[in-house]
Specification:
Order of helices and strands: EEEEEEE
Strand order of the largest sheet: 3-2-5-6
Shape: globular
Number of helices: 0
Largest sheet: 4 strands, antiparallel
Distance between the termini: 71 Å
Strand content: over 45%
Structural class: mainly beta
């Protein structure tokens, strides 16, 4: 009989909650995606006919969209991404 090796999992992955957000918009805008817990900011341009998507790791987020046509028009979206959950996705259509 060949020697049997004890097979133990190596490098088990931590379950990290991630949220896939798929963006669409009715007019071109700039997005400021802030992870409040980690104080990280992602700036993003989203065109009217574009589809954008981003994975967010665990934490509290604030997403501020500012219209390119009228800079005084803004929308704010808040998300709380939990750790340990399954990967989920959400569609976000930004309307001004």
């Amino acid at each position: 009989k060949p020697d049997q090796k004890n097979q133990t999992p190596t490098g088990q992955k931590k379950r990290v909650g991630q949220l896939l957000i798929k963006f669409t918009t009715n007019e071109s805008c700039k997005l400021k995606i802030t992870n409040i817990d980690l104080d990280e900011v992602i700036d993003w341009d989203l065109s009217k006919n574009d589809y954008g998507s981003i994975y967010l790791k665990s934490g509290k987020y604030s997403i501020v969209a500012t219209s390119e046509i009228d800079k005084s028009k803004t929308k704010t979206y808040d998300f709380d991404v939990k750790s340990g959950g399954a990967h989920t996705s959400q569609n976000l259509h930004i309307r001004f």
